[in-house]
Design goal:
The complex is a heterodimer of chains A (339) and B (269). Chain A has 339 residues and is α+β, with helices and mostly antiparallel strands. Helix content of chain A is 66%, strand content 6%. Classes of the chains: A alpha+beta (339), B alpha/beta (269). Chain B: Residues 223-236, 254-269 have a biased composition (Basic and acidic residues).
């Protein structure tokens, strides 16, 4: 190849790919946050498998695979939601049924239509650089709808996912909102289909959220950070793959997912450290010990605790206990008490 | 102002879960401004009763009126503040105290409108009443059990309802938090709110209770003046298992728990 990296970026197909990456990176984690909140992280995967059948139907009927995928994925998502709502604890079984049925149906139908599976493969693992101008605008429009609903109805969707019974007593139509999330998930799966592919789509919905919640303490911060991480991963992954394509055959879909996972691996130790720090600094329950016990058993305590003494200071009622070697020392006049 | 209509009127209420009758022939009228404690042993139907009152469980027979309106046509949900039992499992995404309390304001917010000044003031006030204003930005899971229970009360409070329905607010809550809880409920009562709460034991809430309704095996066995905790578990109410074991007590598990298990996909509530 004789063109530079910057010339590559200015090509039409690359610009379309970037546009699709931006919108996919924003929309998928937005829906994903609600799925993770409801502990349905794998729902995106289940819908992705169902959408395979939709794509295959589009391929053999020579209609747009995007639209058939939207329809079939939406039906699958509604089916998962209905079985989950009616079947109480057996939502995972419903997901499993969709996984296998969707994938098997898709491969079977593609074969029946005499199509080679290599065409299906561009939908399974994404082929963002072959996206047509028409598909770009469909992707952008669907992603914009998903974003508008996810952000506009966020107070309601948050309340329904956080505590469905409370939301129902507050007069919210819980089932309608749950169905809405299922449909949004189906739409964003098909939006992300061309970018990362149906088999990897769930990663873009879940991994940025998992990364964001390592450091966030609120739902809103998680949502915003997940969207930022999502766009970073999808655009960054695409650019990385484009840059690497000068020397090797690098597929953008897996690059995006691996970059996203790399973010999680980087954030996880930070999250673990923050959590253990918070646990150590949690205030002790108020109340003095029954007996007055002086630290050091009369031999004195030659170390003076203070702001910078290096020992962990934890709130305990109206004072501070210094924690070291399994003891809690509270200043008391000239000595320290065991608390 | 609304005329002082009874917030809850349940007559002949019967509730079955998965075909099993749980509540039978319950008559319960709560008048405005009353502080009612629903008491009884585990499995006596207390929680089923509050879930019925809040419309979460359908009546098999009988009639429920909320603020004078039959349940089927009732839509003024902002007048009811529900405080469920503290969820055991946390949500999958970190959530701040403020966010949980703010969701209590949804009964008064229209779709797609940002929080108004009045909304923010009500949320701040609710956090102050339960004494958690300084923890508003902390994650809910970093709080103690009693503090989490107070967050749920603040959520109901933020909607400024007239009727509070609380399911076991003191269960598994340490004594200092129970006292903070009693203080918050005392302020609600002083403000003229109607309170219906489920309690296994009243503890620090005892001075607030105007009326006790004791359930046994899905029926009302006492309705009137508040009882001391030991009286609720009196053998004359037929409870075979309580905190007071007697030497001559026969098999303590003779009475089965009536809570149904909804595991199978064919079960319907």
């Amino acid at each position: 190849m004789n063109i530079s990296f910057w010339e590559l970026l200015s090509l039409d197909f690359m610009q379309r790919a970037l546009l699709a990456a931006v919108f996919t990176g924003l929309a998928a984690p937005a829906v994903g946050t609600y799925l993770v909140q409801r502990r349905l992280s794998l729902m995106g995967d289940g819908i992705g498998h169902v959408a395979v059948t939709g794509v295959a139907l589009g391929l053999i009927t020579h209609t747009s695979p995007t639209w058939t995928a939207v329809v079939v994925a939406t039906l699958g998502a509604v089916a998962i939601e209905v079985v989950r709502a009616k079947g109480h604890t057996n939502g995972d079984v419903a997901l499993a049924l969709m996984f296998y049925g969707g994938l098997a149906g898709g491969v079977l139908i593609t074969g029946l239509g005499g199509q080679s599976t290599s065409l299906l493969q561009t939908y399974l693992f994404g082929s963002i650089t072959t996206i047509s101008p028409g598909d770009v605008w469909v992707t952008v429009a669907l992603a914009a709808v998903v974003l508008a609903v996810c952000l506009g109805l966020s107070p309601q969707l948050f309340a329904v996912a956080h505590d469905p019974e409370y939301a129902q007593v507050a007069g919210l139509r819980v089932q309608a909102y749950n169905l809405a999330v299922a449909v949004l998930a189906a739409v964003s799966v098909t939006v992300a289909m061309r970018t990362v592919g149906l088999l990897l789509v769930s990663a873009l919905m879940v991994v940025p959220v998992a990364t964001a919640q390592q450091v966030s303490r609120s739902f809103r911060a998680t949502l915003v950070a997940a969207m930022a991480l999502g766009i970073g991963a999808s655009v960054g992954g695409l650019l990385l793959a484009a840059y690497a394509s000068f020397s090797a055959n690098v597929a953008p879909g897996p690059t995006i997912v691996l970059l996203s996972l790399g973010g999680f691996v980087a954030a996880w130790p930070l999250g673990a450290w923050l959590r253990s720090r918070q646990r150590l600094r949690a205030p002790f329950a108020p109340g003095e010990p029954a007996a007055h016990e002086v630290a050091g058993h009369g031999e004195g305590h030659d170390h003076v605790h203070g702001e910078d003494c290096g020992h962990l200071a934890v709130e305990h009622g109206d004072h501070v206990d210094y924690v070291h070697e399994g003891h809690r020392h509270a200043p008391h006049g000239e000595h320290y008490d065991e608390h | 102002m609304h005329p002082p209509v009874s917030p809850v009127q349940l007559s002949g209420g019967t509730v079955a879960i998965g075909g099993r009758p749980i509540l039978r022939g319950i008559d319960l009228t709560v008048t405005a401004g009353e502080f009612v404690a629903l008491m009884g042993a585990n499995g006596s139907g207390k929680t089923t009763l509050v879930r019925t009152i809040t419309g979460l469980l359908p009546l098999t027979s009988g009639e429920l009126r909320l603020f004078g309106t039959p349940l089927a046509s009732y839509d003024e949900w902002s007048r009811i503040g529900f405080v469920p039992q503290r969820p055991g499992a946390s949500s999958g995404v970190p959530t701040s105290v403020w966010e949980v309390v703010a969701s209590g304001r949804l009964t008064r917010r229209r779709l797609l409108r940002p929080l108004s000044k009045a909304d923010r003031a009500a949320i701040d006030h609710a956090l102050e009443v339960v004494g958690l204003a300084d923890r508003r930005h902390d994650g809910v899971t970093s709080l103690s059990g009693g503090q989490q229970q107070r967050v749920l009360i603040a959520r109901a409070l933020a909607g400024e309802p007239e009727l509070y329905v609380l399911d076991e607010p003191t269960a598994g809550v340490d004594l200092p938090s129970q006292q903070a809880l009693a203080e918050a409920l005392g302020r609600l009562k002083a403000g003229g709110a109607t309170v219906v709460l489920v309690a296994h034991e009243l503890g620090p809430l005892a001075p607030l209770v105007d009326r006790a309704v004791v359930l046994r095996d899905g029926r009302v066995v006492h309705d009137g003046s508040p009882l001391a905790d030991h009286e609720v578990h009196d053998p004359s109410f037929g409870e075979s298992h309580s905190h007071h074991h007697h030497a001559n007590e026969s098999a303590p598990s003779a009475r089965h728990d009536h809570a149904p298990h909804l595991d199978s996909p064919v079960d319907r509530t």
